[in-house]
Each structure stands twice: as C-alpha cells, then as structure tokens.
Fold:
Amino acid sequence: MNVRVRFAPSPTGHLHIGGARTALFNWLYARHTGGQFVLRIEDTDAERNTPEAIEALITGLRWLGLDWDEGPEGSTPQGDFFQSQRSEIHSRRVDELREKDLAYEHEGAIRFRMTREATTIPDLICGDVVRELTDREQEQPDFVIVRSDGKPVFHLVNVVDDIEMGITHVIRGEDHLSNTAKHMALFRAFDVEPPAFAHIPLILNANGSKMSKRDEGASLETWRDEGLLPEAMINYLSLLGWSPKDDTEVMAVAEIINRFDLPQVNRANARFDDEKLRWINYEHLRQTPMPQYRMLAENVGMPLEGHDEDFVNAALATCQEKVKSLPDLPSFGAFYFTDDFPVDSDFGEKAMTQENLSALAALRDAYVAVESFEADALEASLKQLAEELGVKVRVLVQPARFACTGQKVGPSLYHLMEVLGRDKVLGRIDRALSGS
Ligand code: GLU
Structure:
C-alpha cells in the first residue's frame, strides 16, 4: 500500500511541542515507508487562525527539516492545501450526504445521521477501542455537520479532506480519539473505508500535568532561539512516545527514519524533560562532523574568517567536546581568533594576585625554553616549575588561563596553548604581566 499521511494543524499560535511531535511522527512514518507526507492547514476558524500563526507553523516545520511532498508553498491561504479554500468541495460532500438521506436539516443546521451502536476503533497504537454512545448521544446521536450560519464543522471537513487527499493513515494526538467514532461513521457514509488510525499519547510536563501551549518550553521557537540543533530536537521529539527496541537514545535523523514504526509507539503518556533535551543536543553537538561544526560556529558569531583552516579545526576541536550548547561557544573559544576577547574580571582578580603574577613571569621563561610547544611538554614543564617554586599548580594555571583566554572556563589549558602556539602564548602572557 502506498502510505499517505498528513499533518493537519489548526494554526492558532506558535508551533508547540505537541504539534511538532505529531508532524514528526507522520513525517517519519512517510519516510520510513516511502510514502507521502501531506501538509494541510485547517484554517476554517477565521477568528483564531492568523497569518502569523500560519507563518510560524511553516517556519517551524522548515527549521526542523520536515519537508512535505504535498502542501502549501507559502503562508498565504490559497490553493488546495488550505481548508478555508475548499468550501466548494465541502458543500458538494454535504449535498451528497443529503441526497443519500444521511444528513438532514434541523433548526437551520445540518445534522448527520450517526450510527446508534457502539463503534470499535481499531487503533494501531491503542488497540481496539470500543466507544459507546454517551447519555447525550443516546438522546440525540445525530451531530451537526453544518452550523446554522452555514459553516461546516471540524468533523466533516477533516474527513472530507482526508478522503479527497487519499489519506491512508491518520496519526494524531490521543485527544482526538473521542472524535474518531464520528469520523469513522462519516467515512462509511461516503462509502469509503476509514483510514488506519494511530493515536499518539499525550505529552505531559515534568510534573505530570498536561502540557499546554502556554507552558514554558512548549514553544518550538523558544528552543530554536536557544540555539538548539534541529536534529537534536527531532531526536528528542521522536522519543516522546516512541523508542527503538534496544532503547538507543541518541540517533541521527536517518537512523530514526530507519527504525521508526507505529507499533512501537507507547500507549503511556510521554513526559517533556528539558534536561534530557539539552543532553541530547549536547550529544549531537559533540558528534557533528568538523566542517558542519565550523559552519555552526560561524553562525553563532565565532570570528573564524581569515584564519587558517587547520588552525580553526584544531581550535574548534578543543571546544567541541566541552561546549554544551552552541550559543556558549563564543565565550568559550573566541580567544583563539581575536586578541580582543571578552574578559571575566572577577576571575581576573582572583587569578592575577601578586603571587600568581610572579609565578606567571617564571612560567614565561620556562615556555621560552621548552623545546616542543605541545600539550604534554607544556604540562610537564608547568608542573616541574610549580615544584621548583614550591607552589600549587593552580598558582600557575590560573594566571596562564586568564592571560590566554580571559575566562575561567574553556578548553584544556595545555591543549589550547599548543593550538595558540608559542608566539601568541608568550605575547598574551606579556600583555597580562604588563597589566594592559
Ligand atoms: N486540525 C486538527 C488539530 O489540529 C487536526 C486533527 C487531525 O489530525 O485529524 O487538532
């Protein structure tokens, strides 16, 4: 079967974590099966759907890299993939139901003749879910499909568009499970076999409450602005309700596509854990190949231009293992590329005491003499000097670090000095000793 899935958001604000995860599961399923991923904007609620929200949605999906095979090109509501532009199709389908006497007018609205029996929903994740009629439905099982103001309701347009677009699998949040009996009845009324359903678990906050759009961390944009890698976001979102059989956690997108499947989606609710998201981001950052890492570094403002490529690679390599989040990189490693680096003056005060300064002067002499300017030799020479002077290693390490980098935290001191090279290191020590 050629799989066709869709993400059908109602654009009302930011793209939030829950929406992004629904989009992702659809996209993964399409890519895993070689099917198509359709984006359909359910923008029939004119009061709540704003152009900004549509724009935010499209930008968010593009940032994540969730490309659609069919869908809108831009955020202006035109063409087939905006529900608001499909009203002719919707009213034709309403006529069809009325002709079949499966819908009728009642107090100005149009109602659908709903089945009077319990419905079994075969769900790929939840199993068979039996939905009985509620008390209210027993009184009036027929639900409105067109309001008295002429507007078709969600259930109708959602099903009609799924039929028209040939959707084979409906993958969406569990909050829609309660609508599915209605949807199945509508499919059947149109003589169409309902698609396969897969309702994915809710996302809860770390404290167990239901995550809402307004919760901290719930907006995708916040994470993008924090400098998170989109592939880390994808990796993390994929684990909100799914996991591969061997419980691997850090995965490249291609690997997730390869391993993703609906039967492995959990029934239990998922919990959003921003610490874990940050950890996954760090793991991806650490494993980014150097050419890409260089580009990322440039994007966060590392002044790499004009520097020799080998030098840049060596410098960034000392940062990559330690930098947890990309926006931290400039304060961590900009000293490699400019003499005009930011200085932590509190650290300066502690590092540049009188005792430390005279030790630093002695270190300068040792580093003029040291034969090879490599990390091991620099470490050995510093430690030997500390012993000769009868001081703690820290008395040499702190002022050397301050002189070379201006910061308390940074790459390993001996490695960064090796990468900087003798001339630069001596120059910076001189500058620090002269107090300028
Ligand atoms: N517009 C609906 C929503 O955003 C779509 C539901 C569905 O995927 O069928 O919740």
Q: What stands out?
A: The longest strand covers residues 119-123. The chain has four domains: 4-81+202-276, 86-200, 288-336, 345-434.
